[in-house]
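ARCHIVE RECORD
Type: protein–small molecule complex
Small molecule: glutamine
Source of inputs: curated submission
Record status: active
Notes field left blank by submitter.
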Amino acid sequence: MQALILTGFGINCEEEFAAAYRLAGAEATIVHLNQVLHGQVSIHDFDILNFPGGFSFGDDLGSGVVLANKLRYRQTGAGGRTLLEDIKEFIAAGKFVLGICNGFQVLVKLGLLPNLSGHVTPEVTLTHNASGRYEDRWVTLRVNPLAQTPFLKGIDTLEVPVRHGEGRLVISDAAIQQRIEAAGLNCLSYLDAAGDGTGVYPFNPNGAALNCAGLTDPTGQVFGLMPHPEAFLSAYNHPDWARRRRLNPSASEEGEGLQIFKNIVAHIAHSRTAATAAENEFATQN
Ligand SMILES: NC(=O)CC[C@H](N)C(=O)O
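STRUCTURE (tokenized, with ligand):
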């Protein structure tokens, strides 16, 4: 299982991302974006393509905008191919894409999320937090039961940190909002202390539409979220870990964020085993 983690140009969460995949049992390779853009590394040699958080291109023109434009317009070699074309093929081959924070912003600005149309054009946006400031705090999330993505399988709620200035999801078209909700693409919502979805600050740290902290595409293969599950890999990452352990001494020492990475690694392993079994059956029958 091979996870490709892109870095460079101000991305700064690639090591946490790699640690998450290694703990989940996958191999993680950190690669500078230019190595991919210059054709030295092919995304097709990997199973999961990852866009970490950070401040790519200094958040100039809006977080994620410049990197999204590089993926859409920068030619990766002779023939005028772009990385976006490779990414479309990668997804069509049944592979997975994950973007966290700045990576989520890239996927949204590019139009890979939510991608209701299938044409990879921006349908929603992420902009400055309603508070007008950078938010650095822990939040509680609930997984939408309608969500179809294997990344979130079996998860009900989780606590994770956010650290961003431009996390407010804006959906200006009511029809698009309706389709997102109907398909459960708004896969994660911010919860208040009573465990209900909320637009109230600081539980909802940015004022996002639909209290939405993360989106998937209709296939469930592309997933992005503002909070950082890769920053909660050990129970001891939680600011309140001592009290949590006192309340529940037998609780796992894993952080709640790790499950997302374990889920996708297990899902790919399971699909491979099923594919091999089908091939073997075909071979014995013929
Ligand atoms: N941690 C991050 O990835 C931050 C993303 C982006 N730079 C923002 O502030 O919104």
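CURATOR ANNOTATION: The radius of gyration is 19 Å.
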